Amino acid sequence: MVDINKPWVVDSRLxxxxxxxxxxxxxxxxxxxxxxxxxxxxxxxxxETAWRQALIDFGAFDDCEFSPDSLDIIGVAxxxxxxxxxxxxxxxxxxxxASAELMDxxxxxxxxxxxxxxxxxxxxxxxxAERIGASIGRVMGTxxxxxxxxxxxxxxxxRRARPDYSAMSxxxxxxxxxxxxxxxxxxxxxxxxxxxxxxSIVTGFLDETLGRFDDSTLGVRLMGGWGGVASAAPAxxxxxxxRLAAASELVTKEFEVGVDGVLDRLRSRGxxxxxxxxxxxxxxxxxxxxxxxxxxxxxxxxWESHPEMVATLVNQxxxxxxxxxxxxxxxxxxxxxxxxxxxxxxxxxxDAEGWGQLQxxxxxxSVWMPARELSKTNFIKALHETRLPLRxxxxxxxxxxxxxxxxxxxxxxxxxxxxxxDDPSVVSxxxxxxxxxxxxxxxxxxxxxxxxxVPSPTTWEQRTGPSALPVAGPGETLSGLGACPGSxxxxxxxxxxxxxxxxxxxxxxxxxxETDPGWTPLFTTCAGVVVNVGSPLSHAAIVSxxxxxxxxxxxxxxxxxxxxxxxxxxxxxxxxVTVH
Length: 580
Description:
- This protein is α+β, with helices and mostly antiparallel strands.
- Among the domains are: 20-212 and 359-439, no CATH class; 477-579, 3-Layer(bba) Sandwich (Glucose Oxidase, domain 1), CATH 3.50.30.10.
- The chain contains 21 helices and 14 strands.
- The protein has helices spanning 26-29, 36-43, 45-58, 85-94, 100-108, 129-140, 146-160, 170-210, 218-222, 233-247, 249-257, 262-267, 272-288, 307-317, 326-347, 352-399, 414-422, 430-441, 520-525, 539-547, 558-561, and strands at residues 20-22, 74-77, 80-84, 443-444, 448-450, 461-462, 477-479, 481-484, 487-494, 509-512, 528-531, 551-553, 567-571, 576-579.
- The strands form 3 sheets. The chain has an 8-stranded mixed beta sheet, with helices on one face.
């Protein structure tokens, strides 16, 4: 029996200066234990370096404030990735118009358990004000981000130039992965990390501007419906492919035979309808194949490697009524935003300064909300090209009988992978690590931990065990963060993984643990969304607003407190979920 109380293979030393860490936002993209390969290729020093540089570029920190030999911003405790809340709080203290409490709301939502912020020497250092002020001026004066469009083109060209992995040696595969990481992924990630802080300027300015009104729902009602949001694009394109399938009697019959094998059956047919569908489907995979759930994993179930997942989604989309079009529902959000803006214009008729500030905030939102998601999409596309050579290497070792499965390669650090090429005995560590990771993943990590006081994993709640909170009963209202305005009533469907998409019926309420881009298309097939974790600028929030799906995030233990089949009303304006 493995001892899960000892540090995991890639655990980090938590910061002694910035001591509070949270799973908020981290749990959305890294829900399970970080594998050794993931941590040494993606989320270790490579991500830490990019994030540090983003904070420095923004003007909020100096490099000397960070530890030179241990991770500060991205901590790993017993295998689970945490974001340093203390550093985000200091950012809030140094940022004009922000606060430590604002950062708590951003990263914690309505969750509790974090120790109260206590200012430390150096937290409110005034020398950063001028630098941050320059960043504020730059952000508010930005009307477009052509550099991100250029990065999108670079990512596309990288995909088109993908080499033939079968012609590369084992060492060449590792070298190519490293080169893509160094030349593309690292730069795209730095921009995305900087984008998080730049977009927070805009939402902070909006909150400040709306402070003159006694209505906490205004912000969420003004933040969506911009169109052109990269992470919502897959849902829109899947809708189009679903319509194509629904319009073809031939394609429809093949899906009705069963989703299993439907792509092979359609490829084997010579009819124009079949060829046209397959061409559109393959084009979708080429463009969006990098997307998946658990996008920080080294070997996630991405759509290119698992096209059957996309076929399942198409099967769901083809059954939807025409008025479920994500473009149509998104247009309603846009129209609602414009109507609200006109209402506020009238209310500010005697306050020219207030109206001018509100116009500036909304104009900035129209730039930075789509830009934030485009920066993330560019990063994921480059990351996909970083991972695939390692997947090929894992398959080779499995074919040679060195590994039981290609994804066992994830249980080795990158340096061990390189060593394995010349010394197969390195695999001897895998058996224990496989058992170790399985034991850790049976448990739910604490939402907040403090350096020097991380509870033993043996005390963590079992994922499959009962909730620490009671199951919600009739008449009870659960609170969270409203992400997309509007309300919807429907039957709850608890979905723990996007691969279970076929269980979600049109008109039901999706209740999920977290929602990264692999979940996005499910939003279109449901009436509303409830999520365990999330924040106003999380992926789930931004996409739900673009698709016009009422959503409530950060509902503590929602997947345990709400049972499938329960009738719910989701109010994405007030951030409440009512059980009927």
